[in-house]
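Re: the request from the purification team.
They wanted to know what the chain is likely to look like in 3D before they choose a buffer screen. I agreed to run a prediction and write the result into the notebook, where they can find it.
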Amino acid sequence: MTPRPSLGLRARLLFAFALLCVVTAAAVAGGSYVQARNAILERTQDGAVQAMTSRLEALYPLRSAAPGPDELGEIAAAAADQNSFAVAVYRETHSPLPPASPGPPPGPGSPGLDGKARILDLGAISPGLRQVVADGRTAWQRVVWQGEPSLIIGMPMLIIEQDRTTRVSGIEVYSVRSLLPEQHSVDELAARAWLIGGAALAFAVVLASLAARGVLGPVRELGRAARLLGEGEMRTRIAVRGSDELADVARTFNNTAAELERLVKQLREMEADARRFVADVSHELRTPLAALTAVADVLDEEAARLPEPASRAARLVSQETLNLTALVNDLIEISRFDSGVAALAPNEIDMAELVGATLRVRGWSERVRTEVPPGVTARLDPRRVDVILANLVGNALRHGAPPVSVRLRADPHRITLEVRDHGPGLDEAVLPHVFDRFYKASAARARSEGSGLGLAIARENARLHRGDLTVTNAPDGGAVFTLCLPRRAPDPDGGPE
Protein backbone atom coordinates (compact mmCIF):
# COMPACT_ATOMS: atom_id res chain seq x y z
CA MET A 1 0.00 0.00 0.00
CA THR A 2 1.47 3.31 -1.06
CA PRO A 3 1.75 5.72 1.91
CA ARG A 4 -0.07 8.99 1.57
CA PRO A 5 2.19 12.00 1.05
CA SER A 6 2.33 14.13 4.16
CA LEU A 7 2.93 17.83 4.59
CA GLY A 8 6.46 18.94 5.28
CA LEU A 9 7.50 20.41 8.61
CA ARG A 10 7.58 23.94 7.16
CA ALA A 11 4.04 23.63 5.81
CA ARG A 12 2.79 22.21 9.11
CA LEU A 13 4.40 25.04 11.09
CA LEU A 14 2.90 27.64 8.77
CA PHE A 15 -0.50 25.97 9.00
CA ALA A 16 -0.32 25.76 12.81
CA PHE A 17 0.70 29.43 13.17
CA ALA A 18 -1.96 30.55 10.69
CA LEU A 19 -4.65 28.47 12.40
CA LEU A 20 -3.66 29.83 15.82
CA CYS A 21 -3.73 33.37 14.49
CA VAL A 22 -7.12 32.91 12.83
CA VAL A 23 -8.66 31.39 15.96
CA THR A 24 -7.16 34.06 18.22
CA ALA A 25 -8.07 36.93 15.91
CA ALA A 26 -11.59 35.56 15.43
CA ALA A 27 -12.07 35.19 19.19
CA VAL A 28 -10.68 38.65 20.05
CA ALA A 29 -12.27 40.47 17.12
CA GLY A 30 -15.56 38.61 17.55
CA GLY A 31 -15.71 39.38 21.26
CA SER A 32 -14.80 43.03 20.67
CA TYR A 33 -17.34 43.28 17.88
CA VAL A 34 -20.17 41.87 20.01
CA GLN A 35 -19.31 44.12 22.97
CA ALA A 36 -19.00 47.23 20.80
CA ARG A 37 -22.23 46.42 18.96
CA ASN A 38 -24.14 45.93 22.19
CA ALA A 39 -22.66 49.11 23.67
CA ILE A 40 -23.65 51.17 20.61
CA LEU A 41 -27.18 49.81 20.52
CA GLU A 42 -27.67 50.12 24.27
CA ARG A 43 -26.39 53.69 24.27
CA THR A 44 -28.71 54.61 21.40
CA GLN A 45 -31.59 52.79 23.03
CA ASP A 46 -31.11 54.38 26.46
CA GLY A 47 -30.69 57.84 24.94
CA ALA A 48 -33.84 57.51 22.88
CA VAL A 49 -35.89 56.30 25.88
CA GLN A 50 -34.58 59.12 28.07
CA ALA A 51 -35.24 61.76 25.40
CA MET A 52 -38.75 60.51 24.76
CA THR A 53 -39.46 60.43 28.50
CA SER A 54 -38.30 64.03 28.88
CA ARG A 55 -40.47 65.19 25.97
CA LEU A 56 -43.56 63.46 27.26
CA GLU A 57 -43.05 64.76 30.83
CA ALA A 58 -43.34 68.27 29.43
CA LEU A 59 -46.98 67.51 28.48
CA TYR A 60 -48.16 66.94 32.06
CA PRO A 61 -50.77 67.59 33.29
CA LEU A 62 -52.86 66.21 30.42
CA ARG A 63 -55.71 68.37 29.24
CA SER A 64 -58.10 65.47 28.87
CA ALA A 65 -58.28 61.98 30.25
CA ALA A 66 -60.01 60.85 27.04
CA PRO A 67 -58.17 62.60 24.20
CA GLY A 68 -59.39 62.65 20.66
CA PRO A 69 -57.41 62.30 17.44
CA ASP A 70 -56.24 65.92 17.50
CA GLU A 71 -54.91 65.71 21.04
CA LEU A 72 -53.32 62.35 20.26
CA GLY A 73 -51.66 63.97 17.26
CA GLU A 74 -50.22 66.68 19.52
CA ILE A 75 -48.89 64.02 21.89
CA ALA A 76 -47.33 62.08 18.98
CA ALA A 77 -45.73 65.25 17.62
CA ALA A 78 -44.28 66.06 21.02
CA ALA A 79 -42.90 62.52 21.41
CA ALA A 80 -41.11 62.56 18.03
CA ASP A 81 -37.92 64.34 17.03
CA GLN A 82 -36.06 64.82 13.76
CA ASN A 83 -34.81 61.24 13.77
CA SER A 84 -38.00 59.46 14.77
CA PHE A 85 -41.74 59.32 14.29
CA ALA A 86 -44.43 58.58 16.87
CA VAL A 87 -48.04 57.52 17.14
CA ALA A 88 -50.28 57.97 20.18
CA VAL A 89 -53.02 55.40 20.85
CA TYR A 90 -56.00 55.60 23.18
CA ARG A 91 -58.21 52.59 23.11
CA GLU A 92 -59.39 52.29 19.48
CA THR A 93 -58.28 55.81 18.53
CA HIS A 94 -54.79 56.78 17.36
CA SER A 95 -53.13 59.90 16.14
CA PRO A 96 -53.12 60.57 12.39
CA LEU A 97 -50.39 58.70 10.47
CA PRO A 98 -48.13 60.72 8.13
CA PRO A 99 -49.21 60.45 4.51
CA ALA A 100 -47.10 58.22 2.25
CA SER A 101 -44.91 60.17 -0.14
CA PRO A 102 -43.72 58.79 -3.47
CA GLY A 103 -40.08 58.46 -4.35
CA PRO A 104 -37.11 56.39 -3.23
CA PRO A 105 -36.62 55.61 0.45
CA PRO A 106 -34.59 58.14 2.41
CA GLY A 107 -30.85 57.79 2.98
CA PRO A 108 -29.19 56.80 6.24
CA GLY A 109 -29.81 59.23 9.07
CA SER A 110 -32.68 60.99 7.30
CA PRO A 111 -35.80 58.83 7.66
CA GLY A 112 -38.61 59.89 5.39
CA LEU A 113 -42.38 59.71 5.69
CA ASP A 114 -42.83 56.96 3.12
CA GLY A 115 -40.96 54.24 4.95
CA LYS A 116 -41.89 55.42 8.46
CA ALA A 117 -45.59 55.72 7.69
CA ARG A 118 -45.62 52.07 6.89
CA ILE A 119 -43.53 51.27 9.98
CA LEU A 120 -45.95 53.26 12.21
CA ASP A 121 -48.82 51.11 11.08
CA LEU A 122 -50.14 49.60 14.32
CA GLY A 123 -49.80 46.15 12.79
CA ALA A 124 -45.99 46.58 12.94
CA ILE A 125 -46.08 46.80 16.73
CA SER A 126 -45.97 43.37 18.32
CA PRO A 127 -48.84 42.37 20.66
CA GLY A 128 -46.33 41.61 23.39
CA LEU A 129 -44.93 45.14 23.32
CA ARG A 130 -48.45 46.64 23.39
CA GLN A 131 -49.40 44.46 26.35
CA VAL A 132 -46.36 45.59 28.36
CA VAL A 133 -47.11 49.23 27.62
CA ALA A 134 -50.81 48.77 28.42
CA ASP A 135 -49.75 47.46 31.84
CA GLY A 136 -48.05 50.81 32.52
CA ARG A 137 -44.40 49.96 31.77
CA THR A 138 -41.99 51.40 29.27
CA ALA A 139 -40.66 48.84 26.79
CA TRP A 140 -38.76 48.72 23.54
CA GLN A 141 -37.70 46.27 20.88
CA ARG A 142 -35.39 46.23 17.90
CA VAL A 143 -36.98 45.08 14.66
CA VAL A 144 -36.14 44.90 10.97
CA TRP A 145 -38.93 46.36 8.90
CA GLN A 146 -38.65 46.26 5.12
CA GLY A 147 -34.92 45.62 5.39
CA GLU A 148 -34.19 48.61 7.67
CA PRO A 149 -33.14 48.14 11.33
CA SER A 150 -35.36 50.16 13.65
CA LEU A 151 -36.02 50.73 17.35
CA ILE A 152 -39.63 50.83 18.57
CA ILE A 153 -40.17 52.41 22.01
CA GLY A 154 -43.50 52.07 23.76
CA MET A 155 -44.32 54.33 26.74
CA PRO A 156 -47.58 54.80 28.75
CA MET A 157 -48.92 58.27 29.66
CA LEU A 158 -49.69 58.71 33.36
CA ILE A 159 -52.28 60.83 35.17
CA ILE A 160 -51.15 62.62 38.32
CA GLU A 161 -53.84 62.78 40.99
CA GLN A 162 -54.19 65.65 43.48
CA ASP A 163 -52.53 63.55 46.19
CA ARG A 164 -49.54 63.25 43.85
CA THR A 165 -50.23 59.61 43.10
CA THR A 166 -50.17 58.40 39.54
CA ARG A 167 -52.26 56.01 37.53
CA VAL A 168 -52.24 54.76 33.97
CA SER A 169 -54.21 56.99 31.68
CA GLY A 170 -54.64 54.39 28.93
CA ILE A 171 -52.77 56.54 26.42
CA GLU A 172 -49.92 54.65 24.72
CA VAL A 173 -47.18 56.40 22.80
CA TYR A 174 -45.01 54.47 20.33
CA SER A 175 -41.90 55.97 18.74
CA VAL A 176 -39.89 54.46 15.92
CA ARG A 177 -36.28 55.43 15.38
CA SER A 178 -34.06 54.32 12.50
CA LEU A 179 -30.91 52.40 13.49
CA LEU A 180 -29.17 52.77 10.13
CA PRO A 181 -26.44 55.12 11.47
CA GLU A 182 -25.70 52.66 14.26
CA GLN A 183 -25.75 49.80 11.76
CA HIS A 184 -23.13 51.60 9.67
CA SER A 185 -20.98 52.07 12.77
CA VAL A 186 -21.27 48.37 13.55
CA ASP A 187 -20.38 47.49 9.93
CA GLU A 188 -17.28 49.69 10.19
CA LEU A 189 -16.30 47.84 13.34
CA ALA A 190 -16.71 44.51 11.54
CA ALA A 191 -14.62 45.75 8.58
CA ARG A 192 -11.88 46.89 10.94
CA ALA A 193 -11.99 43.54 12.74
CA TRP A 194 -11.53 41.74 9.42
CA LEU A 195 -8.70 44.09 8.48
CA ILE A 196 -6.95 43.54 11.79
CA GLY A 197 -7.44 39.78 11.46
CA GLY A 198 -5.93 39.80 7.96
CA ALA A 199 -2.96 41.85 9.13
CA ALA A 200 -2.50 39.49 12.08
CA LEU A 201 -2.63 36.51 9.73
CA ALA A 202 0.04 38.00 7.49
CA PHE A 203 2.15 38.80 10.55
CA ALA A 204 1.68 35.23 11.81
CA VAL A 205 2.80 33.80 8.46
CA VAL A 206 5.95 35.93 8.60
CA LEU A 207 6.61 34.81 12.17
CA ALA A 208 5.94 31.20 11.17
CA SER A 209 8.42 31.48 8.30
CA LEU A 210 11.09 32.86 10.63
CA ALA A 211 10.33 30.20 13.24
CA ALA A 212 10.35 27.45 10.61
CA ARG A 213 13.69 28.68 9.34
CA GLY A 214 15.09 28.64 12.86
CA VAL A 215 13.79 25.13 13.48
CA LEU A 216 14.30 23.60 10.04
CA GLY A 217 17.90 24.81 9.71
CA PRO A 218 19.19 22.53 12.49
CA VAL A 219 16.83 19.76 11.37
CA ARG A 220 18.19 19.90 7.82
CA GLU A 221 21.74 19.92 9.16
CA LEU A 222 20.87 16.90 11.31
CA GLY A 223 19.39 15.10 8.29
CA ARG A 224 22.45 15.88 6.18
CA ALA A 225 24.76 14.63 8.93
CA ALA A 226 22.68 11.47 9.33
CA ARG A 227 22.91 10.79 5.57
CA LEU A 228 26.67 11.28 5.62
CA LEU A 229 26.94 9.00 8.63
CA GLY A 230 24.85 6.38 6.84
CA GLU A 231 27.20 6.66 3.84
CA GLY A 232 30.19 5.83 6.02
CA GLU A 233 31.47 9.32 6.92
CA MET A 234 32.09 8.45 10.55
CA ARG A 235 33.73 11.78 11.33
CA THR A 236 30.54 13.71 10.62
CA ARG A 237 29.58 16.06 13.44
CA ILE A 238 27.06 18.88 13.98
CA ALA A 239 27.87 22.35 15.31
CA VAL A 240 26.15 22.82 18.69
CA ARG A 241 24.55 26.26 19.06
CA GLY A 242 22.79 27.45 22.20
CA SER A 243 21.35 25.35 25.00
CA ASP A 244 17.84 24.54 23.82
CA GLU A 245 16.33 21.18 22.86
CA LEU A 246 17.84 21.29 19.36
CA ALA A 247 21.27 21.82 20.90
CA ASP A 248 20.65 18.74 23.09
CA VAL A 249 19.74 16.77 19.98
CA ALA A 250 22.94 17.95 18.27
CA ARG A 251 25.05 16.95 21.28
CA THR A 252 23.33 13.56 21.43
CA PHE A 253 23.97 13.04 17.73
CA ASN A 254 27.64 13.95 18.11
CA ASN A 255 28.04 11.58 21.06
CA THR A 256 26.29 8.81 19.13
CA ALA A 257 28.42 9.44 16.04
CA ALA A 258 31.61 9.36 18.14
CA GLU A 259 30.63 6.09 19.78
CA LEU A 260 29.60 4.63 16.41
CA GLU A 261 32.92 5.71 14.91
CA ARG A 262 34.76 3.99 17.74
CA LEU A 263 32.77 0.79 17.34
CA VAL A 264 33.12 0.77 13.55
CA LYS A 265 36.84 1.33 13.85
CA GLN A 266 37.08 -1.50 16.34
CA LEU A 267 35.01 -3.82 14.12
CA ARG A 268 37.09 -2.94 11.09
CA GLU A 269 40.27 -3.68 12.98
CA MET A 270 38.83 -7.01 14.14
CA GLU A 271 37.70 -7.81 10.60
CA ALA A 272 41.10 -6.89 9.21
CA ASP A 273 42.76 -9.08 11.84
CA ALA A 274 40.45 -11.96 10.98
CA ARG A 275 41.10 -11.61 7.26
CA ARG A 276 44.82 -11.33 7.85
CA PHE A 277 44.66 -14.40 10.07
CA VAL A 278 42.81 -16.38 7.39
CA ALA A 279 45.25 -15.24 4.71
CA ASP A 280 48.28 -16.04 6.88
CA VAL A 281 46.94 -19.44 7.86
CA SER A 282 46.06 -20.24 4.26
CA HIS A 283 49.52 -19.28 3.05
CA GLU A 284 51.16 -21.22 5.86
CA LEU A 285 49.11 -24.31 4.96
CA ARG A 286 50.26 -24.32 1.36
CA THR A 287 53.68 -25.80 2.13
CA PRO A 288 52.48 -28.78 4.20
CA LEU A 289 49.62 -29.24 1.76
CA ALA A 290 52.07 -29.50 -1.08
CA ALA A 291 53.78 -32.33 0.77
CA LEU A 292 50.43 -33.95 1.58
CA THR A 293 49.42 -33.73 -2.06
CA ALA A 294 52.59 -35.56 -3.08
CA VAL A 295 51.87 -38.23 -0.47
CA ALA A 296 48.25 -38.44 -1.68
CA ASP A 297 49.46 -39.04 -5.25
CA VAL A 298 51.63 -41.92 -4.03
CA LEU A 299 48.73 -43.33 -2.02
CA ASP A 300 46.48 -43.18 -5.10
CA GLU A 301 49.05 -45.18 -7.09
CA GLU A 302 49.46 -47.77 -4.33
CA ALA A 303 45.80 -47.96 -3.29
CA ALA A 304 44.98 -50.71 -5.78
CA ARG A 305 47.71 -52.96 -4.36
CA LEU A 306 46.79 -52.43 -0.70
CA PRO A 307 44.33 -54.54 1.27
CA GLU A 308 40.73 -53.32 1.14
CA PRO A 309 40.63 -51.39 4.45
CA ALA A 310 44.00 -49.75 3.77
CA SER A 311 43.03 -49.06 0.15
CA ARG A 312 39.79 -47.34 1.22
CA ALA A 313 41.68 -45.27 3.82
CA ALA A 314 44.32 -44.27 1.26
CA ARG A 315 41.65 -43.08 -1.18
CA LEU A 316 39.88 -41.18 1.60
CA VAL A 317 43.11 -39.46 2.66
CA SER A 318 43.82 -38.56 -0.95
CA GLN A 319 40.31 -37.14 -1.50
CA GLU A 320 40.29 -35.12 1.73
CA THR A 321 43.74 -33.78 0.87
CA LEU A 322 42.38 -32.56 -2.47
CA ASN A 323 39.37 -31.01 -0.72
CA LEU A 324 41.60 -29.28 1.83
CA THR A 325 43.82 -27.98 -0.96
CA ALA A 326 40.77 -26.57 -2.79
CA LEU A 327 39.53 -24.97 0.44
CA VAL A 328 42.90 -23.33 1.11
CA ASN A 329 43.07 -22.06 -2.46
CA ASP A 330 39.54 -20.63 -2.14
CA LEU A 331 40.43 -18.95 1.18
CA ILE A 332 43.50 -17.38 -0.40
CA GLU A 333 41.38 -16.14 -3.30
CA ILE A 334 38.75 -14.68 -0.94
CA SER A 335 41.48 -12.98 1.10
CA ARG A 336 42.72 -11.29 -2.07
CA PHE A 337 39.26 -9.87 -2.71
CA ASP A 338 38.91 -8.74 0.91
CA SER A 339 42.29 -7.02 0.92
CA GLY A 340 41.59 -5.32 -2.43
CA VAL A 341 44.63 -6.80 -4.19
CA ALA A 342 42.66 -8.91 -6.67
CA ALA A 343 43.21 -7.50 -10.15
CA LEU A 344 42.07 -8.26 -13.67
CA ALA A 345 44.26 -9.37 -16.54
CA PRO A 346 41.91 -8.58 -19.45
CA ASN A 347 42.47 -10.05 -22.88
CA GLU A 348 40.47 -10.33 -26.09
CA ILE A 349 38.70 -13.69 -26.00
CA ASP A 350 36.17 -15.57 -28.10
CA MET A 351 33.31 -16.53 -25.79
CA ALA A 352 32.42 -19.71 -27.72
CA GLU A 353 36.01 -20.95 -27.45
CA LEU A 354 36.18 -20.06 -23.75
CA VAL A 355 32.92 -21.89 -22.91
CA GLY A 356 34.01 -24.94 -24.93
CA ALA A 357 37.44 -25.06 -23.26
CA THR A 358 35.93 -24.75 -19.77
CA LEU A 359 33.61 -27.72 -20.37
CA ARG A 360 36.18 -29.80 -22.25
CA VAL A 361 38.94 -29.50 -19.64
CA ARG A 362 36.60 -30.71 -16.90
CA GLY A 363 35.01 -33.47 -18.96
CA TRP A 364 31.58 -31.87 -19.05
CA SER A 365 31.17 -31.46 -22.80
CA GLU A 366 28.85 -34.45 -23.15
CA ARG A 367 26.76 -33.56 -20.12
CA VAL A 368 26.09 -29.88 -20.88
CA ARG A 369 24.13 -28.42 -23.79
CA THR A 370 25.38 -25.09 -25.14
CA GLU A 371 23.70 -22.30 -27.09
CA VAL A 372 26.70 -20.12 -27.76
CA PRO A 373 26.78 -18.28 -31.10
CA PRO A 374 30.26 -18.10 -32.66
CA GLY A 375 32.12 -14.87 -33.21
CA VAL A 376 31.13 -13.17 -29.95
CA THR A 377 34.26 -11.54 -28.54
CA ALA A 378 34.88 -9.56 -25.39
CA ARG A 379 37.83 -8.12 -23.54
CA LEU A 380 37.72 -9.97 -20.21
CA ASP A 381 39.97 -11.85 -17.82
CA PRO A 382 39.75 -15.41 -19.22
CA ARG A 383 40.97 -17.10 -16.02
CA ARG A 384 38.34 -15.43 -13.87
CA VAL A 385 35.53 -16.01 -16.38
CA ASP A 386 36.58 -19.67 -16.49
CA VAL A 387 36.38 -19.83 -12.68
CA ILE A 388 32.88 -18.32 -12.73
CA LEU A 389 31.60 -20.65 -15.43
CA ALA A 390 33.17 -23.73 -13.84
CA ASN A 391 31.56 -22.94 -10.49
CA LEU A 392 28.12 -22.42 -12.04
CA VAL A 393 28.18 -25.52 -14.25
CA GLY A 394 29.70 -27.69 -11.50
CA ASN A 395 27.07 -26.52 -9.04
CA ALA A 396 24.27 -27.30 -11.55
CA LEU A 397 25.66 -30.78 -12.24
CA ARG A 398 26.08 -31.63 -8.55
CA HIS A 399 22.84 -30.24 -7.14
CA GLY A 400 20.50 -29.87 -10.11
CA ALA A 401 19.09 -32.32 -12.62
CA PRO A 402 19.82 -32.80 -16.32
CA PRO A 403 19.74 -31.37 -18.81
CA VAL A 404 22.16 -28.59 -17.85
CA SER A 405 22.51 -25.83 -20.43
CA VAL A 406 24.72 -22.80 -21.06
CA ARG A 407 23.27 -20.00 -23.15
CA LEU A 408 25.02 -16.86 -24.38
CA ARG A 409 23.37 -13.58 -25.38
CA ALA A 410 25.18 -10.42 -26.40
CA ASP A 411 24.52 -6.80 -27.29
CA PRO A 412 26.99 -4.04 -28.25
CA HIS A 413 27.80 -3.30 -24.62
CA ARG A 414 27.23 -6.44 -22.54
CA ILE A 415 27.26 -10.20 -22.69
CA THR A 416 24.98 -12.48 -20.69
CA LEU A 417 25.66 -16.12 -19.80
CA GLU A 418 22.82 -18.25 -18.41
CA VAL A 419 23.53 -21.57 -16.71
CA ARG A 420 20.39 -23.59 -16.07
CA ASP A 421 19.46 -27.00 -14.72
CA HIS A 422 16.10 -28.74 -14.64
CA GLY A 423 16.02 -29.84 -11.02
CA PRO A 424 13.58 -28.77 -8.30
CA GLY A 425 15.14 -25.32 -8.08
CA LEU A 426 16.03 -23.43 -4.94
CA ASP A 427 13.79 -22.74 -1.98
CA GLU A 428 12.63 -19.11 -1.74
CA ALA A 429 14.31 -18.85 1.67
CA VAL A 430 17.61 -19.99 0.14
CA LEU A 431 17.73 -17.57 -2.82
CA PRO A 432 18.93 -14.49 -0.84
CA HIS A 433 21.81 -16.51 0.69
CA VAL A 434 23.09 -18.48 -2.30
CA PHE A 435 26.16 -16.26 -2.68
CA ASP A 436 26.95 -16.05 1.05
CA ARG A 437 30.26 -17.52 2.14
CA PHE A 438 30.14 -21.05 3.52
CA TYR A 439 26.37 -21.16 3.01
CA LYS A 440 24.86 -24.52 2.16
CA ALA A 441 21.15 -24.92 1.48
CA SER A 442 20.82 -28.14 3.49
CA ALA A 443 22.43 -29.19 6.71
CA ALA A 444 22.55 -32.70 5.26
CA ARG A 445 25.08 -31.41 2.71
CA ALA A 446 27.42 -30.05 5.38
CA ARG A 447 29.98 -32.70 4.37
CA SER A 448 29.21 -32.56 0.66
CA GLU A 449 31.83 -31.82 -1.93
CA GLY A 450 32.80 -28.16 -2.11
CA SER A 451 33.96 -25.53 0.34
CA GLY A 452 30.87 -23.31 0.27
CA LEU A 453 32.97 -20.51 -1.22
CA GLY A 454 32.60 -21.24 -4.93
CA LEU A 455 29.54 -19.09 -5.63
CA ALA A 456 30.88 -16.28 -3.42
CA ILE A 457 34.13 -16.28 -5.41
CA ALA A 458 32.16 -16.38 -8.67
CA ARG A 459 30.17 -13.29 -7.71
CA GLU A 460 33.31 -11.43 -6.55
CA ASN A 461 34.93 -12.19 -9.93
CA ALA A 462 31.83 -10.90 -11.72
CA ARG A 463 31.87 -7.67 -9.71
CA LEU A 464 35.59 -7.27 -10.35
CA HIS A 465 34.62 -7.06 -14.04
CA ARG A 466 31.98 -4.42 -13.13
CA GLY A 467 29.29 -7.00 -13.80
CA ASP A 468 26.99 -9.08 -11.60
CA LEU A 469 25.81 -12.60 -10.94
CA THR A 470 22.20 -13.38 -10.00
CA VAL A 471 20.01 -16.46 -9.50
CA THR A 472 16.30 -17.15 -9.97
CA ASN A 473 14.03 -20.15 -10.36
CA ALA A 474 12.72 -20.91 -13.84
CA PRO A 475 8.90 -21.00 -14.18
CA ASP A 476 9.00 -24.65 -15.33
CA GLY A 477 11.53 -25.76 -12.70
CA GLY A 478 15.25 -25.52 -12.17
CA ALA A 479 17.68 -22.84 -11.04
CA VAL A 480 18.91 -20.19 -13.49
CA PHE A 481 22.21 -18.41 -12.77
CA THR A 482 22.70 -15.29 -14.90
CA LEU A 483 26.16 -13.77 -15.40
CA CYS A 484 26.15 -10.27 -16.88
CA LEU A 485 29.50 -8.76 -17.90
CA PRO A 486 30.58 -5.70 -19.91
CA ARG A 487 32.05 -6.34 -23.36
CA ARG A 488 35.19 -4.47 -22.25
CA ALA A 489 36.38 -4.96 -18.69
CA PRO A 490 38.08 -2.09 -16.87
CA ASP A 491 41.84 -1.75 -16.86
CA PRO A 492 43.72 -3.08 -13.83
CA ASP A 493 44.10 0.54 -12.61
CA GLY A 494 40.32 0.85 -12.43
CA GLY A 495 39.61 3.00 -15.49
CA PRO A 496 37.92 1.81 -18.67
CA GLU A 497 40.13 1.07 -21.60
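For the purification team: The first strand starts at residue 84 and ends at 90.
Please add any questions underneath this entry.
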